[in-house]
Design brief:
The protein has 529 residues and is an alpha/beta fold. It is built from 16 helices and 20 strands. The strands form 5 sheets. Strands 1, 2, 3, 4, 5, 6, 17 and 18 form an 8-stranded mixed sheet that branches. A 5-stranded parallel sheet has the order 7-16-8-9-12, with helices on one face. A hairpin with a 2-residue loop joins strand 14 and strand 15. Helix 1 packs parallel to helix 14 and helix 14 runs parallel beside helix 16. The two termini are 20 Å apart. Bound molecules: 3-acetylpyridine adenine dinucleotide.
Length: 529
């Protein structure tokens, strides 16, 4: 058995596409296996109404090619899902990527064969592909979570999941609709579903914080200015924790006089978007500071929502930014509509889904269509769906039974020549995904090139290096308030999932520095054979 490819890449989202491009550029042979019919990953599947990225479009884009940057025109401050998908398709065409992407195929199994240091990758089309490296590019939020609510299969009408939306779209005009969940996907889709539907019932388990997007068409002068200064903007972004070029107010909230604090929050609220959390430098470090920001937003709910009881239910009580902050266009305003009902299921879960709706809090709610905006088995879900087997046939599932452990979020002990783009233990979901993806892809491509130059067949992290990295990931997580709530960051949304803070919260600059130091140290922490 000889490897007929250098690498199999799993997934043709932004990570898989760029990985293919980079490997080709270095003269490696690679094939991408993609379950969908097209490229785009997250942006291929998440087609729910109102889906858009809440990182500004000029920043949520590739930076590897100045030509690509200059030729592509974003039209809105926050790009819609169709526009981002168009961009992904443009990149696939521009770099002629499709000829090495096999669509409508799922990788079912990948096993490392020690006798010849290669991976055997099996697909649902019955293929067995032999490659020296496997690179996972399956996304962090790509395995939809369908909660086990009793009776779900009995619902007579159509059920849609926001993370796997019908490609032909759904028209709710004249229909009654039930939505379960109030995370980012729900917060984006609810205002639009409410405009279409005859009636909408929203089932809310946890009230969420959201900041207005103030989305708008991009001013051509602004675009010209961004394009003229793209390099500097990207460079600045890489010095900031989330890899997003935004202004961080480097002072403590609690040490700032109240009037100035409120001015700062109001300014950020009026500007809109995720930069609200950069109003002060300790919002995720200090309870009291956090409470000032949380209370500012709670006041907004009370101002916006007219019915005091509804406002009370919608008012979040937890730490702001602990679950991922949302960005919306008219979310709380939607609950002032006469055709929208909010059901508080905080203390009592939905009893059951019935053929005609749902039973909750002792009452029956009826609707024609059900929308599950119930999120994802984040960070590890997609990886563990594939039967990945390393040395001695051990499975990744077994290896991570107490939570994921990686070296740099990129590699796993016992799984040689496996790279996990934006894997657990890397900054990934806490950052702008595009620069994080590009940094991982560049690191992997350069690593493979270095191995080829040195004549090395196998790279694998050393157990001590992995352990030290995991201790570090855990200890920085404990410093922040983000690790303290029941979020998908800690796997709390999936019953039975080990509770571990999965992403690396030390910030992109520190992470990049560490990755570069590892290379400068001759791939420190890895065994090369
Ligand atoms: O999923 P979520 P999402 N009964 O997990 C509720 C990214 N994203 O798809 O909070 C009742 O946030 C659950 O309740 P609770 C972004 O990173 C980005 O909205 O667990 N309710 C919650 O309200 C985001 O964070 C963008 O108590 C149940 C909701 O379902 C991530 O994807 C847009 C339930 C799930 O919220 C995930 O967002 C969209 C049950 N059994 C997504 N099970 C942008 O860039 C779950 N829930 C804009």
């Amino acid at each position: 058995m000889t490897a007929n490819l250098d690498a199999v890449i799993i997934g043709a989202g932004f990570a898989g596409m760029y990985m293919l491009h980079r490997l080709r550029g270095k003269g490696f042979s690679a094939r991408v296996i993609e379950a969908g019919k097209g490229v785009g990953g997250t942006w291929y599947w998440n087609r729910y109404p109102g889906a858009r990225c809440d990182v500004e479009s000029v920043q949520y884009s590739y930076q590897f090619s100045p030509e690509l940057e200059q030729e592509w025109e974003w039209t809105e401050r926050y790009a819609t899902q169709p526009e981002i998908l168009k961009y992904a398709n443009h990149v696939a065409d521009r770099y002629d990527l499709r000829r090495d992407i096999q669509f409508e195929t799922r990788v079912t199994r990948a096993e490392f064969v020690e006798t010849n240091n290669s991976w055997v990758v099996e697909t649902d089309k019955g293929q067995r592909i032999v490659a020296r490296f496997v690179i996972t590019a399956m996304g962090c939020l790509s395995s939809p979570n369908t909660p086990k609510i009793p009776g779900l299969a009995d619902f007579a009408g159509p059920t849609y999941h926001t993370g796997n939306w019908p490609h032909e779209g759904v028209d709710f005009t004249g229909k009654t609709v039930g939505v379960i969940g109030t995370g980012s996907s729900a917060i984006q889709s609810i205002p639009i579903i409410a405009q279409q539907a005859r009636h909408l019932t929203v089932f809310q388990r946890t009230a969420n914080y959201t900041i207005p997007a103030h989305n708008r068409p991009l001013d051509p002068d602004h675009v010209r200015e961004v394009k003229a200064n793209y390099r500097e903007m990207r460079k600045r972004a890489k010095t900031l924790p989330a890899g997003i070029d935004l202004r961080i107010n480097n002072v403590s909230a609690i040490e700032t006089p109240e009037e100035e604090r409120r001015r700062q929050y109001q300014e950020r609220w009026d500007y809109g978007g995720l930069g609200f959390m950069a109003s002060f430098n300790d919002l995720l470090l200090n309870d009291e500071s956090n409470e000032t920001a949380a209370e500012f937003v709670r006041e907004k709910v009370r101002e916006i929502v007219k019915d005091p009881r509804t406002a009370e239910i919608l008012t979040p009580t937890n730490i702001i930014g602990c679950k991922r902050l949302c960005v919306d266009s008219g979310y709380w305003e939607t609950f002032n509509r006469p055709n929208v009902t909010l059901v508080d299921i905080r203390d009592e879960p939905i009893e059951r889904i019935t053929p005609t709706g749902a039973r909750a809090r002792g009452q029956d709610y009826t609707f024609d269509c059900l929308v599950l905006a119930t999120g994802f088995d984040a960070m590890t879900g997609a990886l563990l769906k594939v039967d990945i087997r390393g040395r001695g046939g051990i499975s990744l599932q077994e290896t991570w039974s107490e939570g994921p452990k990686t070296y740099l979020g990129l590699t796993v002990v016992g799984f040689p020549n496996l790279f996990t783009i934006t894997g657990p233990g890397s900054p990934s979901v806490l950052t702008n995904m595009l620069p994080s993806i590009e940094q991982h892809v560049d690191w992997i491509a350069e690593c493979m090139e270095a191995l080829r130059t040195k004549g090395v067949a196998v790279i694998e992290p050393e157990p001590e290096a992995q352990e030290a990295w995991n201790v570090h990931v855990g200890s920085v997580a404990n410093i922040t308030l983000r690790s303290t709530c029941s979020s998908w960051y800690v796997g709390a949304n999936i019953p039975g999932k080990p509770r571990v803070f999965m992403p690396y919260i030390g910030g992109l600059p520190a992470y990049i520095e560490r990755c570069e130091a590892v290379v400068a140290g001759g791939y420190e922490g890895f065994s090369l054979t």
